């Protein structure tokens, strides 16, 4: 840069910190949605930069599908212990047990869609008025249209046709009782930006992001981790492959990619050359061209 | 590597979405699965090639109608720079969305259809660019392939636009003849237009200056949050957290806290676990002062040697963004950085016909109307004029009945 040394990661970081502090300043009961994935791990790092040496002005909230990668849960618990912040867990299993949602059946059954109900219940129970999430606009074309402060009605719905104008760096967090705002501080980051930031900041990640040997089956042309959460039958052939995961979601809907990248530099190299987008490894987006838009309207992250 | 944020003004008919699609496509920014989704889509060009415009239309209604309704943000990068594109709609009924996309941009691409030249829409878009104070303008004369890549056509449009630019006081304008459909002068230089000796659009975007710092701007930092750990070992810790809007704060600088007017000296500038000698425009930091004075969110730290304007009466340009018209009899909220206070629009000075640029008297303000007003605020604001300091010279209006953002304000003058 012409006059001072403030590179693109510094600029993205400063913007995200500004957004996090606006959340702290404008809301009564915010929360940070923590999935154990790299994007929400990045958010935790940014929150440390925004609020230390003070405490976070919000708890972390994990919507737990019960179909987790073990490594993610281990990472989550170690991280929470290290940073000394509060963790609230919303359990999809509990929503099922209480009869609020019904477990899907069939071969492609997943708890991904059920999370929305648990999320909305958790928001209601704790009266959260803002939920910070790690969604990025480069992930998907409906997300490309979403504001940084994105208002949801009391049913958790996003109305893409009635979004508030969002001007300069001024964020309007005014809402009516019952509504809440989803806040996306890393909206302007790409997948590569997140990885470059993780490398620069030397942030630890759950081990499943790095190449490892794992039993997999092939579903709809994609590699899925063999697990008790996947409805498998005789047609499914289990093979051991060297894989890594590009996103961390429910085990039943997150596909692996074959990879030898076991160091962060290799991953960055691989992503730079990759020809498949990150959400391409998400079965939940494959339903239709408007899959994400429809889920967001219904209250999804 | 740094970031260039730009927005594109034009309509789908001018090939705006195709131009963005072409930039992404030719810089290899479209991934295989996205391309596959494109190929399986029903929309194709007449010659059967992929319609690149679909890349930017994100919402179902937009795909159905083949138009852009809301701002879509797109990202790509080259070895030289990261780019953020705000793809904004061009139709007059979506003016508010264009203003939204333009508000954070430091470059505007004005798209002109070579077959039609400078039209009403060009005037409207250029006016918005001047209103929002966008620093750089690139006029892309598109569809040159349909005009036999004619230099005469290009030059005639350029001359016509120059007159408009002068009228609107647009200083930094660059002209590029392109064909988004065929890819001429978007990423690769065109083989069809030897007479053009300038750069391709991408090469220009890669090297245009992106200095965020307003040259004349003084040090300003709105306080967003006060960090007070209140633990035993950090009992007296009091840090003022915020993002520097403009200028530079240095250690030991004399600063004034507004609106209180109290002064102190910067004793420490922190960024997470490190201490800094100075904080520059754009940086999010935590500032400590020598004296223990009462400061909270909504206050602004400024350099004591260059104070901003403080006033409850402000002359401002207003862009109205709500379907419910302005009601001068009610109170609105005005949000200026971290400060929110009540306000009224006490006078409408004039409205601008954004197709002809004529000013006329008015007593109402409806969706997409733009004009000059006088705002009367409950608490005084500490601001600068938009022309000198974009970040400290802008604000939004909120309707407290609906909580919607209903207006964009650009501060232009003080009122006697």
TrEMBL record, chain A:
<dbReference type="InterPro" id="IPR002500">
    <property type="entry name" value="PAPS_reduct_dom"/>
</dbReference>
<protein>
    <recommendedName>
        <fullName>Sulfate adenylyltransferase subunit 2</fullName>
        <ecNumber>2.7.7.4</ecNumber>
    </recommendedName>
</protein>
<dbReference type="InterPro" id="IPR014729">
    <property type="entry name" value="Rossmann-like_a/b/a_fold"/>
</dbReference>
<dbReference type="InterPro" id="IPR050128">
    <property type="entry name" value="Sulfate_adenylyltrnsfr_sub2"/>
</dbReference>
<dbReference type="Pfam" id="PF01507">
    <property type="entry name" value="PAPS_reduct"/>
</dbReference>
<dbReference type="GO" id="GO:0000103">
    <property type="term" value="P:sulfate assimilation"/>
</dbReference>
<dbReference type="GO" id="GO:0004781">
    <property type="term" value="F:sulfate adenylyltransferase (ATP) activity"/>
</dbReference>
<keyword id="KW-0548">Nucleotidyltransferase</keyword>
<comment type="similarity">
    <text>Belongs to the PAPS reductase family. CysD subfamily.</text>
</comment>
<keyword id="KW-0547">Nucleotide-binding</keyword>
<keyword id="KW-0067">ATP-binding</keyword>
<dbReference type="GO" id="GO:0005524">
    <property type="term" value="F:ATP binding"/>
</dbReference>
<feature type="domain" description="Phosphoadenosine phosphosulphate reductase">
    <location>
        <begin position="30"/>
        <end position="255"/>
    </location>
</feature>
<feature type="region of interest" description="Disordered">
    <location>
        <begin position="279"/>
        <end position="301"/>
    </location>
</feature>
<dbReference type="InterPro" id="IPR011784">
    <property type="entry name" value="SO4_adenylTrfase_ssu"/>
</dbReference>
<keyword id="KW-0808">Transferase</keyword>
Automatic annotation (TrEMBL), chain B:
<keyword id="KW-0548">Nucleotidyltransferase</keyword>
<dbReference type="Pfam" id="PF22594">
    <property type="entry name" value="GTP-eEF1A_C"/>
</dbReference>
<keyword id="KW-0547">Nucleotide-binding</keyword>
<dbReference type="InterPro" id="IPR044138">
    <property type="entry name" value="CysN_II"/>
</dbReference>
<dbReference type="GO" id="GO:0005525">
    <property type="term" value="F:GTP binding"/>
</dbReference>
<dbReference type="GO" id="GO:0006790">
    <property type="term" value="P:sulfur compound metabolic process"/>
</dbReference>
<keyword id="KW-0808">Transferase</keyword>
<dbReference type="InterPro" id="IPR044139">
    <property type="entry name" value="CysN_NoDQ_III"/>
</dbReference>
<dbReference type="InterPro" id="IPR011779">
    <property type="entry name" value="SO4_adenylTrfase_lsu"/>
</dbReference>
<dbReference type="InterPro" id="IPR004161">
    <property type="entry name" value="EFTu-like_2"/>
</dbReference>
<keyword id="KW-0067">ATP-binding</keyword>
<keyword id="KW-0342">GTP-binding</keyword>
<dbReference type="GO" id="GO:0003924">
    <property type="term" value="F:GTPase activity"/>
</dbReference>
<dbReference type="GO" id="GO:0005524">
    <property type="term" value="F:ATP binding"/>
</dbReference>
<dbReference type="InterPro" id="IPR031157">
    <property type="entry name" value="G_TR_CS"/>
</dbReference>
<dbReference type="Pfam" id="PF00009">
    <property type="entry name" value="GTP_EFTU"/>
</dbReference>
<feature type="domain" description="Tr-type G">
    <location>
        <begin position="1"/>
        <end position="213"/>
    </location>
</feature>
<dbReference type="InterPro" id="IPR000795">
    <property type="entry name" value="T_Tr_GTP-bd_dom"/>
</dbReference>
<dbReference type="InterPro" id="IPR041757">
    <property type="entry name" value="CysN_GTP-bd"/>
</dbReference>
<dbReference type="Pfam" id="PF03144">
    <property type="entry name" value="GTP_EFTU_D2"/>
</dbReference>
<dbReference type="GO" id="GO:0004781">
    <property type="term" value="F:sulfate adenylyltransferase (ATP) activity"/>
</dbReference>
<dbReference type="InterPro" id="IPR050100">
    <property type="entry name" value="TRAFAC_GTPase_members"/>
</dbReference>
């Amino acid at each position: 840069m012409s006059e001072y040394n403030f590179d693109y990661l510094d600029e993205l970081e400063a913007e995200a910190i500004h957004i996090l502090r606006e959340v702290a300043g404008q809301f009564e009961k915010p929360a940070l949605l923590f999935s154990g994935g790299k994007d929400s791990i990045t958010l935790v790092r940014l929150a440390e930069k925004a609020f230390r040496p003070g405490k976070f002005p919000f708890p972390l909230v994990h919507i737990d599908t019960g179909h987790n990668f073990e490594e993610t849960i281990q990472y989550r618990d170690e991280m929470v212990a290290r940073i000394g912040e509060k963790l609230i867990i919303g359990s999809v299993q509990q929503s099922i047990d209480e009869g609020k949602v019904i477990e899907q059946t069939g071969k492609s059954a997943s708890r991904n869609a059920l999370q929305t109900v648990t999320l909305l219940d958790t928001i209601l129970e704790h009266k959260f008025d803002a939920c910070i999430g790690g969604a990025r606009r480069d992930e998907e074309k409906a997300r490309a249209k979403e504001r940084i402060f994105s208002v949801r009605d009391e049913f958790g719905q996003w109305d893409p046709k009635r979004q508030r104008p969002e001007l300069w760096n001024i964020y309007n967090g005014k809402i009516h009782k019952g509504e809440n705002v989803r806040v996306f501080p890393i909206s302007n980051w790409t997948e590569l930006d997140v990885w470059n930031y993780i490398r620069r900041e030397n942030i630890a990640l759950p081990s499943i992001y790095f190449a490892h040997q794992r039993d997999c089956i092939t579903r709809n042309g994609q590699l899925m981790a063999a697990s008790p959460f996947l409805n498998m039958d005789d047609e499914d052939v289990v093979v051991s492959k060297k894989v890594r995961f590009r996103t961390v979601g429910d085990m039943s809907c997150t596909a692996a990619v074959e990879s030898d990248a076991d160091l962060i530099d290799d991953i960055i190299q691989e992503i730079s050359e990759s020809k498949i987008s990150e959400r391409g490894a998400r079965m939940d987006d494959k339903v239709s061209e408007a899959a994400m838009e429809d889920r967001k309207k219904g209250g999804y992250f | 590597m740094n970031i260039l944020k730009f927005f594109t003004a034009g309509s789908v008919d001018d090939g705006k979405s195709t131009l963005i699609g072409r930039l992404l496509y030719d810089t290899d920014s479209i991934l295989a699965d996205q391309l596959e989704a494109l190929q399986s889509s029903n929309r194709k060009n007449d010659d059967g090639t992929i319609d690149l415009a679909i890349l930017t239309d994100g919402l179902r209604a937009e795909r159905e109608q083949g138009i852009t309704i809301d701002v879509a943000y797109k990202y790509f990068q080259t070895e030289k720079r990261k780019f953020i594109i705000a793809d904004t709609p061009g139709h007059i009924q979506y003016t508010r969305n264009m203003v939204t996309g333009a508000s954070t941009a430091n470059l505007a691409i004005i798209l002109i259809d070579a077959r039609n030249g400078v039209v009403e829409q060009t005037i409207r878009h250029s006016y918005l660019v001047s209103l929002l104070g966008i620093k750089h303008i690139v006029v892309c004369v598109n569809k040159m392939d349909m005009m036999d890549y004619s230099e005469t056509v290009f030059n005639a449009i350029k001359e016509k636009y120059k007159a408009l630019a002068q009228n609107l006081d647009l200083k930094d304008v660059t002209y590029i003849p392109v064909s988004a459909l065929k890819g001429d002068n978007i990423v690769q230089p065109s083989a069809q237009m030897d007479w053009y000796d300038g750069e391709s659009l991408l090469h220009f975007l890669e090297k245009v200056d992106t200095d965020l710092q307003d040259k004349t701007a003084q040090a300003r930092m709105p306080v967003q949050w006060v960090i007070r750990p209140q633990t035993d070992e950090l009992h007296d810790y009091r840090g003022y957290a915020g993002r520097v809007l403009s200028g530079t704060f240095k250690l030991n600088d004399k600063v004034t806290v507004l609106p209180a007017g109290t002064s102190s000296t910067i004793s420490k500038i922190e960024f997470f676990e490190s201490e800094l000698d100075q904080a520059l425009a754009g940086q999010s930091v935590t500032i400590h002062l020598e004296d223990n004075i009462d400061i909270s969110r909504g206050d602004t730290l400024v350099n004591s040697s260059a104070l901003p304007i403080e006033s409850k009466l402000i002359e401002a340009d207003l862009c109205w963004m709500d379907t419910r018209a302005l009601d001068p009899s009610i109170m609105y909220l005005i949000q200026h950085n971290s400060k929110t206070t009540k306000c009224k629009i006490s006078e409408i000075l004039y409205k601008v016909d954004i197709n002809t640029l004529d000013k006329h008297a008015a007593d109402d303000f409806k969706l997409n109307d733009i004009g000059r007003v006088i705002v009367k605020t409950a608490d005084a604001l500490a601001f600068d004029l938009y022309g000198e300091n974009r970040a400290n010279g802008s604000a939004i209006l909120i309707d407290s009945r609906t909580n919607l953002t209903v207006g964009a304000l650009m501060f232009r003058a003080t009122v006697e």
